Amino acid sequence: MNTTVFEAINITKKYRNTLALNQVSMSVMQGDIYGFIGENGAGKTTMIRLLTGLAEPTTGNIALFGKSDKKLAKQRERIGCIIESPSLYLDMTAHENLEVQRLQRGIPGKVCIDNALELVNLRDAGKKKAKDFSLGMRQRLALAIALLGNPEFLVLDEPINGLDPTGIIELRNLLKRLNKERGITILSKNTAIHYEGVKINIIDTPGHADFGGEVERVLKMVDGVILVVDAFEGPMPQTRFVLQKALELGHKIIIVINKIDRPDARLNEVGDEVLELLMDLDATDEQLDSPILYCSGRAGTATHSPDEEGKDMIPLFDEILSYIPAPEVDTEGPMQYLVSAIDYNEYVGRIAIGRIERGEMKVNQDVTIGDYHQTKKEYRGKIVTMYQIEGLNRVPCQSAKAGDIVCISGIENITIGDTICDFGNFEAVPFVKISEPTVEMTFSVNNSPFAGREGKFVTSRHLRDRLFKELLKDVSLRVSETDSTDAFKVAGRGEMHLSILIENMRREGYELSVSTPHVLFKEIEGKLCEPIESLVIDVPENCVGSVMEKIGARKGELQEMAPVGSRMRLEFLIPARGLFGYKSEFLTDTKGEGIMSSVFHDYEPYKGEIPKRATGSLVAFETGEAVTYGLYNAQERGELFITAGTPVYEGMIVGASPKQEDLVVNVCKKKHLTNTRASGSDDALRLVPPRNLSLEDSLEFLADDELLEVTPKSIRIRKRILSNSQRAKERAKM
What is the rounded CA–CA span in Å between residue 447 and residue 487? Predict the structure, then answer.
């Protein structure tokens, strides 16, 4: 059930003798993109002015985020808006305009400015004065102002007014991207809805196995699981992972086959595949009889039969009430609370999130804190503030009872897995064991010739503080110090897990260097063992041969092969290190039509050497700016990653060589002028479009003797040893 963000009830607005709005009622739901359409003078801007508090209705009522009081100032803090033409200080830069707005609105920290400019693609224009902006850039700057403070509701009055067709398309795509990106779940989110007089707590888990730690903690907090499966793709490795954890805890399952409105939906086949998966995971007879519903998340409908047209989500809510048991808790005993997640606020410090297992929790209550594994001594604390989840918001409360999910603050050094009890009645709650990380990278201070040009946080202290702060929220992460004060070992559940951390740090203004990912080996019964991934691949039938050949070379073992519609599904067991650098190759082999996903399987004996990447690197010869003439000569030696005008330094990777050895190229070389004009000398040099590497592509490309330089604006691959002559001496010693 979606949250109502804005509701107008019988709104009338008069300006003297002019009736601007007459008995207008409407509502906007969470996640909606809602548009007003009407002639000039129809009252569109008037309604927006009423919504934002710039005007008051003559009669009627306005509700924001479920509040309908006369004074909505607190709710309006959660809105970002552009009313009529954007109000900009033309003699100020984009950055200065945002700083003025930040100070006026009392938004803490300056990081939000760079984040807003990044979101609207104005990062590179931040130091440019607004009077020099095009109309489209001014509209984007106004949008950045509206986005300050991460608003939950964005109100735009004619944002495309005056733009040319290209600008209109650009702004529309930007708004759709923002809407989509803000809806991606990376960490779990809580919500609570009320249906038939019952409060239902819902927790949305991440959809990737690299965030398994988050999934495992969430499952400890719930009493049942809604298993959402794509109507075409069916169960994926992540599905198996989450379902297995849920079955181990004895949770009841409601199967939801989503996206039934897809033209390629396989409703009956997917239902059978889910039941086969349940049997494969040794589900009980009761779990095998789990109800199945057919839903369309986009349309907001649910039905019990694939042949029945849905009207709303009522069937799903009815099924939750009838099938998922209420929490089995003791509301009368001494209070007991398990911390399952940690949030952080620079004003109040650590915020614990979890479920009350027993008794009642109150504000200002004295408590005892400890953990199940007795890794720390029990200590005394006090509940300073407490929040319950209502919709997507945290609402202050004075007390809560067993079964409620609450957020609390005021307890110093609280960590995930801690138990909070009545003072003097400590009894630890068993904490679900979380799988260990399998992949490790080295995060170090950026020491390239271009270090410090773009980032705000560039020192080892900045890097250390940020990494250890991440440990407060992410229990699946491991950070350890090295012999060098400038480098840290960071271990996670997979490449994606670590790449998201890198991307977040980059957006926050950090500069750093990262090494190639390495798997974490273990010695089991005297044998060297490595992590093995369960890999599932969906590809067109004509691509099966090339995929099997590549996976076989990477020590993958075929477990199962079966047709899925017009495609083939292949299941492998493959060493985790065998997947490094394969994704881009896989997309090339399958012409972009392949789907690949994996999940940790187990530790098994070492499988032997795996061939590394077949290409070498094109390495810049000197520091300078790449020019067309130098790139034209270099492109004959391999595939380029840069264009003319790109700053480079000695030892920086500028392309890929088809040979395994590295090649040094001079991309800064200019054409020397002569007094002799040869035939064709004036012809324009044509460059092949370069390959643009994303963060994930760059991590895949890295060799053992290379580093990835990550800054807020740039991603560069470089050699560990920048000097070409020094690298040659090191190779001679080997």
Answer: 11
Q: Are residues 280 and 240 in the same domain?
A: yes
- Rounded to an integer, the average pLDDT of 621-632 is 90
Domain membership of residue 73 as a residue range: 4-181
**DSSP per position, 340-359:** EEEEEETTTEEEEEEEEEES
Q: How far is CA 538 from CA 207, 498, 579, in A?
A: 18, 25, 16
Q: CB neighbours (10 Å) of residue 371?
A: 18
Task: Write out the two tokens for 325.
Answer: 């048991």
Q: Which of 150-159, 401-410, 477-486 has the lowest average pLDDT?
A: 150-159
d(CA 470, CA 457): 15
State whether the Cα torsion 410-413-418-419 is positive or negative.
negative
* Rounded distance between C-alpha atoms, residue 211 and residue 493, angstroms: 7
Are 129 and 27 members of one domain?
Answer: yes
Residue 176 backbone zone (phi > 0: left; psi -120 to 50: alpha; other: beta): alpha
pLDDT tens by residue, 688-702: 888 888 887 888 888
> How many beta carbons lie within 10 A of that of residue 254, not counting itself?
18
Q: How does residue 187 score in pLDDT terms, banded at 50, 70 and 90?
A: very low
Give how far the C-alpha of residue 618 lies from the chain's centroid of Cα atoms, to the nearest Å. Answer: 32
Confidence of residue 682 (pLDDT cuts 50, 70, 90): very low
Strand partners, 9: 61
Q: Nearest to residue 36, comparing CAs of 18, 50, 16, 55?
A: 50
Is the same domain home to 595 and 641? no
558 and 447 in one domain? no
Dihedral sign of CA atoms 450, 456, 461, 467 in order: negative
Question: How far is it between the farthest Cα atoms of the chain?
Answer: 98
Amino acid at position 381, single letter: G
C-alpha torsion sign, points 276, 282, 284, 287: negative
Instruction: Indicate which CATH number applies to the domain containing 532.
Output: 3.30.70.240
Confirm whether 345 is domain-assigned.
Answer: no
Question: How many domains are contained in the chain?
Answer: 5
45's tokens: 């801007």
221 vs 417: CA distance, rounded Å: 12
Same domain, 147 and 257: no
Two structure tokens written together for 249: 């805890």
The reply to whether 514 and 528 lie within a common domain is no
Q: Which two tokens stand for residue 545?
A: 């041969």
CA 30 centroid distance within chain:
19
Tens digits of residue pLDDT in 50-60: 877 777 888 88
Q: Are 410 and 385 in contact (CB under 8 A)?
A: yes
Local confidence band at 717 (pLDDT 50, 70, 90 cut-offs): very high
Instruction: Name the token pair of 158.
Output: 């004619």
Rounded Cα gap, residues 175 and 556, in angstroms: 42
Helix, strand, coil distribution of the chain in percent, nearest 5: 25, 30, 40
